[in-house]
Amino acid sequence: MRHATEHADVLTTELDMVLRGGPFHAALRAAIAARGLPLQRVQHHLSRHGVKVGVTSLSYWQQGARRPQRPESLRAVRALEEILQLPDESLIRLLADSHEHTVSGRPGVRSYRSLIEASDVLDRLRAGLGWSADGGLHTLGHHEYVRIGARRELAGREAQHIVRAHHDGVDRFLAVHHGDPGCRPQDISVRALENCRTGRVRWDQDAGLLVAELLFGTRLRCGDTFLFRYGIEDGTAGTSREHLHRFCSPGGQYALQVRFDTAALPARCHRFTQPSAAAPRSGRQELPVTGPHHCVHVVEPRIRPGIVGIAWDWE
After folding, report:
1. Closest residue by Cα to residue 163 from 78, 220, 201, 109
2. Could you tell me where the beta strands, DSSP code E, fall in the chain?
3. Do 104 and 84 contact (CB within 8 A), yes or no?
4. 194-237 pLDDT per residue, tens
5. CATH number of the 2-104 domain
6. Which CATH topology does 112-313 take?
């Protein structure tokens, strides 16, 4: 009996360790072992959750020979978290992290952890400014222009917003800038370009995050529309490899353009989407860098909650 207890303790300790650091297949294997379930029983429990996955696929997943990618497979991973009595998002987070490492194999690409940590920091910075989640504004249009400099760095960006107030008294917007790894938020500047002026600015060094109030100079009534434009001057980090925007609520059109300096043209570019920070990237589409302007873009006719971005590779 003592031997069995000690063995269970070892399995639990191993599971705790791999749930924190991964990889996904090791965490899945450890979770199945800790619960003492044969794969046939795991498959049976999945079917009771309305998810069909073969024993062979489960075996491949826990060996690392294959990884869940299809929507049905991702549903299975979420069901496995419940079946194996794991914390919510624990397996799906590791799956997202392993996907990003596999796709990029390089630093500078934001992981699940960095996005979640930045989200937590953003909530804290917002609260410090007395800011609500949506600020009383609905996005009708959001156009973003990103500049990559001669050192392959994120030199800066401009954003134009068209918004509609959904309650009376709205007089400001909170601009958010998430710099590349290694950036210095205290050295990043915010420029009010049209129909606004800069208010309070806050940043967090560890998260590479900066927020700035943009004051309209007028109070909108419910239903009023407003157009404003601002710029961010960065250039404080190293090599940039992607730019993404995370949307928490639905809205109108979003357009993202990335322009590259002629001295630093990428080898390849592609667009991508993510339903959430915990989900693997999908919707990949190659974007050729052509013409004299050396830029690529994506247009989303209707904003949906999730992430839209462009990534690129250097030679």
Report:
1. 220
2. 137-148, 154-165, 170-178, 189-194, 197-204, 209-220, 225-233, 242-247, 253-260, 268-274, 282-286, 295-300, 306-313
3. no
4. 999 999 999 998 889 999 999 999 999 999 999 999 999 999 99
5. 1.10.260
6. Immunoglobulin-like (2.60.40)
